[in-house]
Design a protein that fits this description.
By secondary structure, this protein is α/β, with parallel strands linked by helices. Helix content is 47%, strand content 15%. It has a 7-stranded parallel sheet, sandwiched between helices. Helix 1 packs parallel to helix 2.
Length: 231
């Protein structure tokens, strides 16, 4: 069966995407910093009859990234890598004049540097897969200027560019940067705790990601709302 590595998989979009892939029979390697929440997710997803390896850790740790790829190798390889783990840089978000540079460095380290590091680690297995793919979870803040979203948005814009170049350099793979649109997640609540407007649950967005896997369009940047509208 195909194997996916999903970072940030203990909750939110990562967990929802993991559940959808498990229902399709995918074997999974899951990452998150919270060991307890990650183990709960792994138990739930394994109930679909798929093999699930849960490795708690920080994606900025090179040893942890190597362990994720090693776990996938034992399951048969890497068919899909989902770089979903994200850091905001400040919680709640603040204007750029107030953004601590250490927070910005953390956002860049998690959202960009670690994402590339995991791609580099997994690349031989992705190239060997029948239909290797990389998904970088982006944001509309990467393309639009929203007050207080400058640090996070800059990191996601860098991730978009990294993904675009990777798609050019690795024509045998599919590399998709995906803006999932509005979602009700812990990350958003941490970013804007005073915003009580209801937002779609992450599982409402998952069909857009599954469409990419099913149809395998060219590498590039995609917006989940547009993919859902076109179904």
């Amino acid at each position: 069966m195909p194997v996916a590595i999903i970072t940030g998989a203990s909750k939110g979009l990562g967990r929802a995407l993991g559940a959808a892939l498990a229902e399709r029979g995918w074997d999974l390697v899951l990452d998150a910093r919270s060991a307890g929440a990650l183990e709960e997710s792994a138990v739930d997803l394994a109930a679909h009859g798929t093999r699930v390896e849960a490795l708690p850790g920080d994606v900025t740790d090179a040893g942890h990234r190597a362990a994720l790829v090693a776990a996938a190798r034992k399951l048969g390889g890497v068919d899909l890598l989902v770089n979903n783990a994200s850091a905001l840089g400040a919680e709640p978000l603040v204007r750029l004049k107030e953004l601590g540079l250490d927070g910005l460095r953390r956002a860049l380290e998690v959202n960009v540097v670690a994402a590339l590091g995991l791609v580099q680690e997994a690349l031989p297995l992705l190239r060997a897969a029948p239909a290797g793919a990389v998904v970088a979870v982006s944001s509309d803040a990467a393309a639009e200027a929203y007050e207080t979203w400058g640090g996070y948005g800059a990191s996601k814009a860098a991730l978009d560019q990294l993904s675009a170049v990777l798609g050019e350099e690795e024509p045998g793979l599919r590399v998709w940067a995906v803006d999932p649109g509005d979602m009700g997640t812990d990350l958003y609540r941490a970013a804007v705790p005073d915003d009580d407007d209801p937002r779609p649950a992450p599982d409402r967005v998952v069909p857009a990601f599954l469409r990419l896997l099913d149809e395998r369009p060219a590498s590039g940047r995609y917006a989940a709302p547009a993919l859902l509208e076109q179904r």
